[in-house]
Design goal:
Number of helices: 5
Structural class: mainly alpha
Strand order of the largest sheet: 1-2
Largest sheet: 2 strands, antiparallel
Order of helices and strands: HHEEHHH
Distance between the termini: 46 Å
Strand content: under 5%
Number of strands: 2
Length: about 130
């Protein structure tokens, strides 16, 4: 009986942490987006042009990542996560940690009005989160 009560207490504590974690993950993602992505994608994620400081890449059109249909080319959060991980930032692909890419992905999902499921976004769970 005591072990069951202890188990319930642990589960209740974990549930509380999990429910708070998703908003925190998206918040971290917003901060990371501002620091690492906004220079090209714009502060609101509505697209722009690659700045001059990027040399040969300067002037390239950068698509929006926030707004209607901005993420339409991705079927799942996993597709978005993997794309960002392999190709972003444009001048240094793969330079963020997986946790950072997941946080940015969580923020982009939040901007696309994809409802959080109450659990942290992971590479495994991202495959279960449809974008379309």
């Amino acid at each position: 009986m005591r072990a069951a009560a202890l188990s319930l207490g642990v589960v209740a504590g974990l549930v509380g942490l999990v429910l708070l974690y998703t908003p925190q993950q998206a918040q971290r993602g917003q901060k990371l987006f501002t620091e690492s992505c906004a220079v090209c994608h714009g502060p609101a994620g509505d697209g722009g042009r690659v700045p001059q400081r990027f040399g040969a890449l300067a002037g390239r059109r950068v698509p929006p990542v926030v707004g209607p249909n901005a993420l339409a080319s991705f079927q799942t959060a996993s597709d978005l996560f993997r794309y960002a991980q392999q190709r972003m930032p444009l001048d240094d692909p793969g330079s963020l940690t997986d946790e950072q890419y997941l946080a940015v992905t969580a923020w982009l999902l939040e901007q696309a009005a994809v409802e959080a499921n109450g659990e942290p976004l992971t590479p495994e769970s991202a495959a279960q989160v449809p974008i379309r």
